[in-house]
Model the fold of this input.
Amino acid sequence: MPRLATSLLAIPLMAALGGCASSSGPTPVYPQVGGVTRYVPALDAVVASDARIERLAEGFTWAEGPVWVADGGYLLFTDVPENRIHRWSESAGLSVFLEPSGYAGRDTGALREAGANGLFAESAGAVLMADSGNRSVERLELATKRKTTLARAFEGRRFNSPNDLVRRGDGTIFFTDPPYGLKDLDDSPVKELAFNGVYRLDADGRVHLLDDGLTRPNGIALSPDERTLYVANSDPERAIWMAYTLDTDGAVTARRVFADAGDLVGDAAPGLPDGMAVAADGTVFATGPGGVLVFAPDGTRLGRIETGGPIANVAFGDDGRTLYMTSNGILARVRLQITGPATPR
Done:
């Protein structure tokens, strides 16, 4: 999760507009930002030509890890450097849900980002958490805010700083482990693994290494049939997304480059391959250079959703046809023509 932004106070945008939404009041009008670049006409079936990108809240250092909590009708997302999880809803606006979200001990000078990063909603009132600061995979109970550690090491060596994760229907968890949470990154003296990995965590607690060849494994997502695992590589020298074919046990049987954004990398298109969300029809929404790149299931580049800055991650919410975007210092959203998974996440 590369970042460049400076710290600001987290401010509910609706307060700045002079009022708060309520269940009985009118729907607030949010400022419009960015736009949509269309590479092929087929994008019209995904994002309407008159789609409006709205800025919902602002003031974050590096907003990340959005997840829609369907039971409560709200969005959770992280601010990793600030060690917070925020909560946002149409009716209540913005609030701090959990602080600290990750590491809560004394400053040892080893961490670059102490907070939690990617989140994934489970049923029964819990979310999975890639806890960058604690260098672990955790389960967070939403009602009590109690954490349970699911994994913290591979073959006796501590993870670097888990970044993003996704859960398959059978309970298998897949996650990425780049060095972004550590000061000095790969050169950190506390880095115990010689590589940056993509992992599978089985329901029985066993951890399996799936790939140790990506320099900066980052965002991760599953196809609708859960047979393909997508992983972003946030390296400007190799700005790609990998696709891994999985067997029933979650082992990788084949791998290929799903898409390459090397031609887009540059100052004119801030951002790198990062978080992802996959629609019910297999359309992939992948944050990358310039915004959210929209790919057909075969990897064809359809278009790009832009907010004017780098976008770290995305999640479906509401009725499944809203795409929420954590974009550097802001939270944004856009309505789509297609829907996300059966349970928005």
Notes: The radius of gyration is 18 Å. The CA atoms of residues 321 and 339 lie 5 Å apart.
